[in-house]
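Appendix B. One record, verbatim.
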Amino acid sequence: MRRRALVLLVLAAASGCGVSDGATLQPRAERTPDLSDVDLGLGFAGVVVPGDVVPGAANEGTATVSIVVATAGGGRLTWAPGRDGGTAIRTPAYAPDGPVPAAALVVWPDPSVPDPLDPGTGDFEVSVDFRADPATAGRPGDDGDNLVQRGRFGEPAQLKIQVDHGLPSCRLAGTLGEALVKADGPVEPDRWYRLTCLRSGPSVRLRLEDLDAAGAPREWVVDSDPGAITFAHIPLSIGAKVTAGGRIATDSVDQFHGTIDRVLVDVR
């Protein structure tokens, strides 16, 4: 039986605080998983204040990783209310003029051990809960809304889930080429969704669940095998695109505008 490695990100508060005043957000016991058997697990270990700057995160799982915040153009990540009363992160709002404010969580695997976030040829799942801002009219400078990304277009390997101009999609790239699956319509702003991308054998499935309404998730499937997806310890980013060096990719930021809550990467 193959080992099933679970990588669960639920965005943990690290030490440090911002400057905002106001009500605190309490950690929720039901949200914090048993992290003893996961490679990467970020649970809410403390109380935070809405509007305070997110200084970073600390892994409560078994993998040795560093999790930092990358910013550019005056952007920042701040703590915000989550979907069901806990804590989430708020990304920079869209700015039509001036430098693009950008910010992302950047996850660095320990380069001295095998990369726990490398799916290789195995099945895996990536999932994120999000609430997108309403679109700004035209949005000429908004070049995508990345939720979770590793690798860039044109590189040998990529894993990306996004809501580019409101349209959910997942792109995988590996040794056999590209697999791209898209939803057939955009999500609504100011509404909580769970977007999941799953690779199972030679197919890729995109699943969208409306968390603010009852009903079954919607799914889209493509029969396309991208082959082995191997990253060799480059960073994984949440909320915007980063370079292989972990800096915001200012040539094409792909900043998501809104709130991100639960993020899960399950390498099987």
